[in-house]
Amino acid sequence: MKRVGCYLRVSTTEQTVENQRNDLRAYCKARGWDNVTEYSDTGISGTRERRPGLDRLLSDVKARRLDVVVVAAFDRFGRSVRHLVETLDLFRHLDVEFISLREQIDTGSPLGQAVFTIIAAIAQLERSLIVERVKAGLRRAKAEGKRLGRQPLRVDPRRLESVVVRKLSARAAARELGCSTASAWRLIRARTTGAVDADGASHAAEEAPHA
């Protein structure tokens, strides 16, 4: 007997999941499924990262306590196309069928598998476009001579020299130089190895967080 998980969600507390529940129960009854567990989230937006009901369902899926997941519609389930595809990929890996009533998708059928392949391709295209836009932006900034990343950390070279001569701890040096402890340590180390330029900028500390 298949173990079925039905997921229900509404975005506000003024709404009710009863319509979804009736449809899902009727579908499961028609399929002859009696071992059904319901998971629901009420008053929770579909874009929320954490959803208690969905989290419990996914936990049971990963623990291999479910064979089928049924929802009323895609938008009741996935936060985004990417989330939907990634979750369906998890289901496929664990041999868990996914059924959406409104879209009439059943990944246990040949047609459902074909639709999943199309959705996965769209998601991959979306990821590729995002990566290409980021790379294009970086190339344009570089061509325009714009500096990428943080500005180098600069301190008064005389104060840095004083810190080194007095052999202050990194914490005490940070207070005196006005930077983080990690930056102070890198500046002192760079100064003692001769890696600090005439402006007192340590290239080794460029990426250190500022205080």
Short description:
This protein is of the alpha/beta class and 211 residues long.
Account of the protein in words:
The protein is 48% helix and 11% strand. Helix 3 (81-93) links the parallel strand 3 (68-71) and strand 4. The radius of gyration is 28 Å and the shape is elongated. By secondary structure, it is an alpha/beta fold. It is built from 7 helices and 5 strands.
Mean pLDDT: 81
Rounded Rg: 28 Å
Q: Which segments are poorly predicted (pLDDT under 50) over 5 or more consecutive residues?
A: 196-211
Can you write the helix and strand succession as a string? EHEHEHEEHHHH
Strand content: 5-15%
**Helical content (DSSP H or I, runs of 4+):** 40-55%
Structural class: alpha/beta
What overall geometry do the principal axes of the alpha carbons give? elongated
Characteristics of this structure?
five-stranded mixed β-sheet, 211 residues, alpha/beta, single chain, disordered C terminus
Topology:
Layout: E1 4-10, H1 18-30, E2 36-42, H2 52-62, E3 68-71, H3 81-93, E4 97-100, E5 105-106, H4 110-143, H5 157-166, H6 170-177, H7 181-192
Parallel strand pairs: 1-2, 1-3, 3-4
Antiparallel strand pairs: 4-5
Helix pairs in contact: 3-4, 5-7, 6-7
